[in-house]
TrEMBL record:
This is Protein N-terminal asparagine amidohydrolase. Signal peptide: none annotated. GO terms for molecular function: protein-N-terminal asparagine amidohydrolase activity. It comes from the Eukaryota. It comes from Digitaria exilis. It holds the Pfam family N_Asn_amidohyd. GO terms for cellular component: nucleus.
Length: 342
């Protein structure tokens, strides 16, 4: 059940089984209008963004979560956990305040929400006290039917963030576990516009300080989106075709050992041809064909896509990436970076 300031959030649509998603829509409306949550979102947006990097002396130990992944971390082993690159996606934080165990996910599609949230709760422990929850990311993309750039207009499908947000709050509200909603920086509460009138998210990334539970806006340098960045990005795409991952978030991080285990993901040989074809597109065509929010993507979006395609072109056989169908295992080094175990 969702709580705000210790009080249950009520929905009159709880019994409206005939209206699919009615509970989620009513909850989103109530939460978006809540003065305390609006103030909290305002404070979060006013907080300067921190930059996360690795390889520097004294850099905090962190775990990075890619799209459609989750990680549950122990504050005894990890100081920061977070994600970025969220446009229409929504980041979820669930924290057990008694133990400090913290789970972060980067949700991108309503059909993975229920299974994904259950995965997040598995290692947080049983506790009678409510868990803290933060929802950050997504924006009012339903207004972006037209993407404007350099005087041109492009029609683009609308409305990814809203149904995702409705599903998240609906599922959290029906769980027996109680959740104190601390941040609701989503949709209208997380939307601004650029000089051309395109809607954009204000916050697209964040980190959680595991010792305190404090959440702040953050961006990650390329070297900090690790380990195994490109392969993990590829897994996001190929997992959509793998029945084993249907309705589930991708598991990558071993909480108990502070180790990344990148489970095998397979792709067909013709993906190399598809990647080669996509790599011929112009940058603007890549944005329009490969993004749910082309006007809102960070500057490195196209570069990331091309690095994925080049990897597939150079590695058409997935078994070369995952020899003997074994996971790719990475251990943390003394300077906070990661080294592949062989």
């Amino acid at each position: 059940m969702l709580l705000v300031d210790g009080e249950p959030v009520l929905s009159s649509a709880a019994g409206a089984a005939s209206r699919v998603g009615a509970v989620g829509m009513e909850l989103v409306a109530a939460l978006a209008a809540h003065p305390g949550l609006r103030d909290a979102a305002g404070r979060l947006k006013a907080t300067p963004e921190s930059r996360i990097s690795v390889g520097q002396e004294g850099a905090p130990r962190h775990v990075y979560v890619f799209q459609r992944e989750f990680a549950t971390v122990d504050p005894a082993r990890v100081e920061l956990v977070g994600t970025d690159e969220a446009t229409t996606c929504i980041g979820v934080v669930i924290r057990n305040n008694r133990t400090g165990m913290t789970s972060v996910s980067h949700l991108d599609f309503p059909k993975i929400v229920e299974g994904g949230l259950k995965q997040m709760l598995e290692l947080l422990g049983d506790d009678n006290a409510p868990f803290d929850v933060h929802l950050i990311g997504g924006f009012s993309d339903a207004s972006t039917k037209v993407v404007r750039s350099s005087g041109k207009k492009h029609i683009k499908q609308e409305g990814y963030s809203y149904p995702l947000c409705c599903k998240i709050v609906e599922v959290l509200h029906k769980f027996q576990q109680q959740f104190n909603l601390r941040s609701f920086c989503v949709l209208d509460n997380n939307t601004t516009t650029d000089s051309l009138g395109n809607a954009l998210p204000v916050i697209g990334g964040f980190v959680v300080q595991t010792s305190s539970g404090v959440v702040t806006p953050a961006g990650f340098d390329m070297n900090s989106r690790c380990p195994d960045e490109v392969v993990r990005r590829i897994r996001v795409s190929v997992s959509s075709y793998d029945p084993a991952w249907q309705g589930r978030l991708l598991e990558t991080y071993d909480t108990h050992c502070d180790v990344f285990r990148i489970a095998p993901a397979c792709w067909m040989p013709d993906w190399a041809d598809i990647a080669s074809s996509l790599n011929q597109l112009s940058d603007s065509e890549v944005l329009m064909q490969c993004s749910t929010s082309p006007a809102a993507e960070p500057p490195h979006f196209v570069e990331n896509e091309r690095r994925i395609w080049k990897y597939l072109i150079n590695n058409p056989d997935w078994e070369e990436t995952f020899p003997k169908h074994k996971p790719r295992v990475f251990h943390r080094t003394s300077d906070g970076s990661w080294s592949r175990y062989s």
